[in-house]
Amino acid sequence: MMIDYKENLINENSELNQYDPITKLMKYRMLSNEEMIDRDRCECAYRAYKKLNWLNDNNKDLEPDTFFSSPYYYIKEMCRKYDIENNNNYYFNGRSKMNNKAFYNLTYGVFLLAAKAEEKANACIVNTGVQVAGSPVRVAVSVLNTNYTCALIKESGRFTLSALDDSCSFETIKHFGMQSGRDVDKLDSLPMPTDESGVPYLNWSTCARFSGKVTHSVDLGTHTLFIAEVTEAEVCSDRAPLTYADYQNKLKPKSEKVERERKIVGWRCKICGYVYEGSALPEDYACPLCGHGTDDFEPVYEE
Fold it and tell me: How many helices (H) and strands (E) does the chain have?
């Protein structure tokens, strides 16, 4: 039965109005269920389906929540079709295949990004932190929009960035990077010092730490880029910084072999929790929410 969209539409987020139908839908899709109930029946979904010719005389029984239950490769194909029909490469470079492993050759560090707003504090692991100006000294960090730390930075306009060194354990990465501050208090009972603004920073396995006051922010879709003037900088140890390559190749535990006798029904992203439905994960697959590759997925077994 065809859905009566006029009866099922919900109020849209006004911040999304500046985007084209497909970008708007992709951004809308990332919003939490708590913020957007029935997000699959929203007006921007309807317009995106119409743009992609999903709603036509041949597909009268197609419901809009088909998009939200579709695997990533299907969504990607929709966007590729949009590019071809509009004779551009807004989403994909023509008809060429994008190899996500190419991005592994970019160099990154591994950092603890922390923030505090009023009495709420949190920290997460990021791999994008870089100095972008020398006078005044400014740094830039990129963090996933769905991260609690991102919300606290937007609220307070301040953060600390702790550059992890090569003595860092996987347990530290796991504690701060593989659970949400909305569910647990990551800083509870941890003896973490604070900077002059009261924002915590890591005082172990850290070679340097920085405090930043946000001057600009840029919404990048899945992430927000914060550019900040550095207000404090300190060398904490003489150890070498931990690189993202060393984390992937040396620190991160290797994936356990899949048990063949148990049926796999999906794959869960260990970073953000997104679930890909299907027994086999495509080799070049990347999480549609956080962008992590197949190495950061674990099997979901049939109960």
Answer: 8, 10
Radius of gyration of the chain (CA): 21
Burial label, 300 (beta-carbon count in 10 A; 0-12, 13-18, 19+): middle
* Residue 1, amino acid: M
Give residue 233's region: left, alpha or beta (phi > 0; psi -120 to 50).
Answer: beta
Domain ranges of the chain: 5-85, 104-246, 256-301
Q: pLDDT, tens digit, for every residue of 36-64? A: 445 555 555 566 556 555 544 444 444 55
Per-residue pLDDT tens over the stretch 202-258: 999 999 999 999 999 999 888 999 999 999 999 999 999 999 989 988 888 876 544
pLDDT tens digits, 62-115:
455 555 555 555 555 666 665 666 555 545 444 445 566 677 778 899 999 999
For residue 7, the one-letter residue type is E
Cα–Cα distance between 218 and 266 in angstroms, integer? 34
The DSSP letter of residue 76 is H
Region 104-246: CATH code = 2.30.110.10
Short-list 164, 226, 237, 159, CA closest to 195: 159
Q: Is the dihedral of CA 160, 163, 168, 171 positive or negative?
A: positive
CATH number of 256-301: 2.20.28.10
